[in-house]
Amino acid sequence: PFDVLVVGGGPAGAAAAIYAARKGIRTGIAAERFGGQVLDTMAIENFISVSHTEGPKLAAALEQHVRDYEVDIMNLQRASKLVPAGADGLIEVQLENGASLKSRSVVLSTGARWRQMGVPGEAEYRNKGVAYCPHCDGPLFKGKRVAVIGGGNSGVEAAIDLAGIVSHVTLIEFDGQLRADEVLQRKLRSLPNVEVIVSALSTEVLGDGQKVTGLVYTDRVGGDSHRIELEGIFVQIGLLPNTEWLKGTVELSPRGEIIIDDRGQTSVPGVFAAGDATTVPYKQIVIAMGAGSTAALSAFDHLIRSSAP
Ligand code: FAD
Question: What's any GO biological process attached to this entry (predicted)?
Fold first, then answer.
């Protein structure tokens, strides 16, 4: 069995594996796709101490750093079930391929995925004007016109944030009214360069083959179709944690995030968690790495306090 088994190979999982392996304990990492969301990212300019890098480059560096240590890397493996420790003190992680892994402690770092609009042009222009993370990509649209899709807290926060960087923001909400907290809505309405459109269904992302040029939406009341000229579209309709497989075993928040304390401990003894899959307030690479390191150190602390050798 492993001492620490990490499930998920994004920045959180890679950091956890390195911190665990550096303690000289048996460490494994199982990941559906090593690199995680970083693989889908183009420019990264907020990975502190590195002015600019690209997703695939950072993902390769993550894997190389893990390979510097004696870590059992199991790539292209999807976990389907977690079984808490029984009398033998071993936690079991079952894989979709039928295999099962046992470990004295586990770090869950299965990340999250952005909910997509699912309209023509969205996938084609991803990273070419279609963006999901205002903290990451906001500055790329300095002085340009953008839309934010979604009038919940994250959409309205994104619109307020972007209004300070871009020339104009159009916030598009499907419902007849915004769902964000009133204090955020007041702040939003006070901004001169933000327009809010409610009862609007986004139907298409327009582009010139290279980058985004516009957005088409249908007015759900009148039924007519409108077109906005712009350079960027931030989709803020939800971040879905990859935790479906943990339902009923590990305590999850109403949004499906793994509930952790400030040491990364979950509701299951010996099981820790880190990164975008958890209740951590901000979802970023540096934050996921810090959280992965925390979880691995907590797992080590758990091991030296438990009786088995
Ligand atoms: P993830 O990166 O999501 O990794 C999850 C890992 O778990 C993957 O290996 C996945 O395959 C695996 N996994 C999932 N389910 C299972 C399962 N059941 N069994 C086994 N493995 C599983 N952040 C920044 O700081 N700066 C940026 O510029 C930036 N730009 C971004 C651009 C885009 C387009 C996107 C999508 C995100 C961006 N982010 C950025 C956010 C950043 O990528 C995430 O915060 C970070 O990757 C989270 O790391 P993580 O390890 O928690 O999860």
Answer: response to reactive oxygen species
Global confidence as pTM: 0.94
Instruction: Residue 122: name the closest of 112, 131, 110 by CA.
Output: 131
Please provide the size of the chain in residues: 309
Gap from CA of 138 to ligand 1 centroid (Å):
19
Contacts of residue 283, defined as CB under 8 A and 6 or more positions apart, other chains included, come to 112, 133, 239, 275, 276
Report the nearest-CA residue for atom 33 of ligand 1: 41
**Closest alpha carbon to 157 in 167, 142, 169:** 169
Angle at alpha carbon of residue 27, lines to 22 and 29, rounded to 5°: 120
pLDDT single digits (tens) 18-64: 999 999 999 999 999 999 999 988 889 999 999 999 999 999 999 99
What number is the ipTM of this complex? 0.99
**Any idea what DSSP says for residue 39?**
G
| DSSP string of 116-151, one letter each residue | P---TTTTTTBTTTEES-HHHHGGGGTTSEEEEE--
